[in-house]
Structure formats: structure tokens, C-alpha cells
Amino acid sequence: MRIEVTCRRLRPESWIRSHRTYKRSFHTHSMIAPDCADKILANLRTTPQIGAELRRLAVEELSGLPGYDWCGVYRLEGEALALDEFVGAATDHTRIEVGVGVCGTAVAEDRNQVVDDVRQLSNYLACSIQTRSEIVVLIRRGDKVLGQIDIDGHEVGAFDKSDESFLERMAEILAERWE
């Protein structure tokens, strides 16, 4: 079951204080509205779906958010990440070795990755020439990494701590019903 959620982005407080400063900062991101995040997470918590079906619902919900231009989940299989469910353009990166690219780095360093401009990375795996920013949030059960949520954006600086916090809460739900 998919709940239709109309999501909006909130402008950062710095923009409200000074539109001129906001424009000069070249940061175009604005945080996810808390009510929107809460509705998406509530939908995932209450659906009976598990495993791949739940992950599919999650990426479908994410793909409706402004700036979430490619949304996917990778499963950790040994020393490689395997593409699971995704919404967006097809990618050649269906298997990524741990330590390679933003996704592989997240696992190797055992921490989430928020990249403002992927063009500044020497080990970036380009999935699309339009991608400018990326966020990767690990999905864990205890200390074990099960996989990750990977989001690409077409604008520089598309993601911030509010996105990371939201995706961490989503990752907890996915981990609880991982198969």
C-alpha cells in the first residue's frame, strides 16, 4: 500500500534571514518537511511488507521527494554491494566492491557519506552525468552492516544532516524487516 504524500522542502533559516547570503552560498538545498518525513516513515512502519517488497516501497516513497533524483538500496554480500531495489535511470553499477566509490567507501569506513559535489572525488563511480551530490546511509542490525540507502541528486549540496537523520530512521525500519 502506498500513501500519496505531498512533500515540500523548507527553506533554511539562513535564507529567511538574508536571501542575498543564501544565494551567494551556492547551497540550494532545503530540509525535508518534518510532517512529510513522518508520513513516509509511518507508512513504512505500518505496511505488512518485508524484505525486498519493503525496500521497493521505501525507494518509491523516496523518489517522490524533491531532489531525490535516483534512489536505491544496495545489499552487502561479502566484500561487495549488490544493487537491490531502485527507482531512477538504470545503472551499470550493480556490484560495487567495498572501498570503491561513495557506496563502497561508506562500508569500508563504517560510516554514512554525504557528498556535496561528487565531481570533487577521485574515486567517484559516475552513474549519471547529471549527478552532482550523493548521500549514502548504512542499514545496520546491531553492529552488522546489511546494506545501504543510496540517493543521488542533480544539484550540488542537495543533502544535509536532515536528510541523513531521516534516512537513518528509514534504515532502522528496513533493518527490522530485512530478508
Throw out a few tags for this protein.
single chain; Beta-Lactamase; 6-stranded antiparallel beta sheet; 179 residues; alpha+beta; 35% helix
Q: What gyration radius follows from the Cα positions, in whole Å?
A: 16 Å
Number of domains: 1
Query: In sequence order, what are the helices and strands, one letter per element?
Result: HHHHEEEHEEEH
Proportion of strand residues: 15-25%
The strand line-up of the biggest sheet is 3-2-1-6-5-4
Shape: globular
In helices, the fraction of residues equals 25-40%
CATH homologous superfamily label: GAF domain
Distance between the termini: 19 Å
Average pLDDT number: 85
Counted beta strands: 6
CATH classification class: Alpha Beta
What name does the CATH topology carry? Beta-Lactamase
Just name the CATH architecture.
Answer: 2-Layer Sandwich
Largest sheet: 6 strands, antiparallel
Tell me the number of helical segments per DSSP (H or I, 4 or more residues long).
Answer: 6
Spans with pLDDT under 50 lasting ≥5 residues?
Answer: 8-28
